[in-house]
Design a protein that fits this description.
It is found in: Cell envelope. It contains 14 helices and 20 strands. The relative contact order is 0.08. Helix content is about 35%, strand content about 25%. α8 runs antiparallel to α9. By secondary structure, it is of the alpha+beta class. It has helices spanning about 1-15, 30-35, 40-55, 60-70, 95-110, 115-130, 140, 145-160, 165-180, 195-215, 225, 230, 255-265, 285-295; strands at about 235, 240, 305-310, 315-320, 325-330, 335, 345-350, 355, 390, 400-410, 410-420, 420-430, 435-440, 445-450, 455, 460-465, 470-475, 480-490, 495-505, 510-515.
Length: about 525
């Protein structure tokens, strides 16, 4: 723990010693003009990173100056979340709530912040009053997702730090957090993936522990299955199934994960490297400070395991083959999940964490990405997931489009009803040679997606990665095509995907993936 804490503190000192990042308020209007979020958000989070570093390791004058600048921002919410019919200054979104919590806890941590009364007034006027004094639920109290836990949890933490009456907090925060917990089934799986589990359940945990300290009430008790989710969705140390809008290698807050191990006995996921503050692109105060307080190094190894989460519709199996750890992950669920992709029956094959057949995860967040054109965007579309078309039709969005996973003695079966009148059955089975796949449905055109270009060799396709090689036997060479698309990932980095597409004959042979 001392090494983890020492490394983080040294990193924070280095950040605090740098000049305060530039901040151009006019970039807030870029989203409305272009639909792009990153130009404003990059500088916004750079400012939050510097604020955290100064609060923990910096001098009072520099900290007070930056706190004053934050309090003069037009809005603490991101422009993408501003509405047309209310003042951005009182927009209560994820980051407004996180900013309120950060500033409130800084006031409690540092008695040398100048203008503390005005800072507290800003916290109340921008976030806590609009939340606690609203006669009607805010939208995120009704549409349950990670927003529910983050906004309610962060606002609740701010209120605790400012000394609010616990009955006031109980009446508004606890019902929202209880609704968030109800979004999980008995298997504890998170439809939004590990990235958003870390975000949502993380803020639930941070608030729950502060609430337990303040009142003695334990909100964490009974949530062992939810706490176990990341380890069950793991492909390799530091690597996870990337279904929906998630990352393959999310930042793993050591404080959160070791706390859940200590409190609920949850096996923490394995990490491939120590956590740094720089890796959190949103520079979140809560995970940083709880890691400094609670954190210990995470495990470095993960072994073979087989997990089916039937309610959320996720299957993950890891197998040791020789010196390599191979993983198969398959997606069920429904096509109106939070951060939904058209991905029912999609699957990943990875070796030592490298996805040879991939799920691309999150694309760059823009206005179109969360608008009516969502499924025309590359990452959420059916065309760039490893799912076939049925009678020429792609998967359809909507709650009625569903896939059920059934784990039987001969392998995993996936029943997909998402193609209108057509249907698809997929059967996966491990064999001595690798993984067998059989697809049943009318007029199927197979699609297999990767960030690696496949090489076609007759009835074989070969994906050669850095850590292993995948060979698909059973390709229909008569109409097999390989195409690609250039896009951008969640961080705006250039991202190229490759797809192998071919039609299956009326009596298809079994497709077989050889693992080398």
């Amino acid at each position: 723990m001392s090494d983890l804490r020492t490394a983080l503190l040294e990193e924070l000192r280095e950040i605090a010693a740098r000049p305060v990042p530039d901040f151009d308020p006019a970039l807030a209007d870029d989203f409305a003009a272009t639909g792009r979020r990153l130009p404003y958000e990059v500088q916004y989070f750079a400012r939050r990173r510097h604020l955290a570093a100064l609060a923990i390791t910096g001098e009072a004058a520099a900290l007070s100056s930056l706190v004053k600048d934050v309090c003069q921002e037009r809005s603490w919410a991101l422009p993408a979340h501003w509405g047309e019919d209310f003042d951005p200054r009182t927009c209560v979104d994820l980051f407004a709530c996180e900013t309120a919590q950060t500033l409130a806890e800084i006031l409690r941590l540092r008695e040398d912040v100048e203008g503390a009364e005005q800072v507290e007034a800003e916290i109340r006027e921008r976030v806590l009053d609009p939340f606690f004094e609203s006669e009607f639920p805010l939208w995120w109290e009704l549409r349950i997702s990670n927003w529910t836990a983050v906004c309610a949890g962060a606002a609740g933490l701010a209120a605790l730090a400012l000394g609010y009456d616990t009955d006031v907090i109980r009446g508004r925060v606890l019902p929202a957090l209880q609704s968030y917990l109800f979004s999980f089934g008995p298997d504890g799986g998170c439809v939004e993936g590990v990235y958003y589990w870390i975000y949502g359940f993380g803020y639930f945990t941070y608030f729950a522990e502060a609430w337990r300290e303040a009142t003695g009430e334990d909100l964490l008790e009974g949530n062992e299955a939810i706490a176990a989710f990341p380890a069950r969705a793991q492909l390799y140390p530091g690597s996870f199934a990337t279904f929906g809008d998630t990352d393959a290698d999310p930042v793993l807050p050591a404080g959160l994960l070791t706390r859940l191990h200590d409190r609920l006995g949850a096996v923490p996921p394995a990490a491939d490297r120590p956590q740094t503050f720089a890796e959190d692109e949103c520079a979140r105060w809560a995970p940083l400070t709880r890691t400094l307080e609670w954190g210990r190094p995470l495990p470095e190894e993960v072994g073979p395991a087989r997990t089916l989460l039937p309610e959320v519709g996720w299957f993950v199996e890891r197998r040791q083959i020789g010196r390599r750890l191979w993983a198969l992950a398959v997606k069920g669920g429904y096509n109106e999940e939070p951060h939904n992709h058209l991905d029912l029956g999609s699957f990943i094959i990875a070796v030592d964490g490298e996805q040879l057949l991939c799920d691309a995860g999150a694309g760059e967040y823009t206005a179109a990405y969360f608008g009516d054109e969502r499924y025309e965007q590359v990452h959420p579309s059916a065309a760039w997931h490893s799912v076939p078309t049925v009678e020429g039709a792609a998967q359809q969005p909507g709650e009625d489009s569903r896939a059920e996973l059934v784990d039987g003695p001969e392998g995993l079966e996936v029943y997909v009803d998402a193609y209108g009148d057509g249907a698809l059955i997929r059967k996966f089975a491990w064999t001595d040679e690798g993984i067998a796949l059989r697809d049943f449905g009318p007029e199927l055109t197979e699609v297999f997606v990767s960030r690696i270009r496949p090489e076609l060799e007759g009835d074989r396709a070969v994906w050669t990665g850095e850590r292993g090689t995948l060979v698909l036997h059973g390709v229909n060479p008569d109409d097999a095509v390989v195409d690609s698309v250039d896009t951008a990932d969640h961080r705006g980095t250039a991202d190229r995907l490759w797809a192998l597409r071919f039609g299956l004959p009326a009596e298809p042979s079994r497709l077989r993936f050889e693992l080398l």
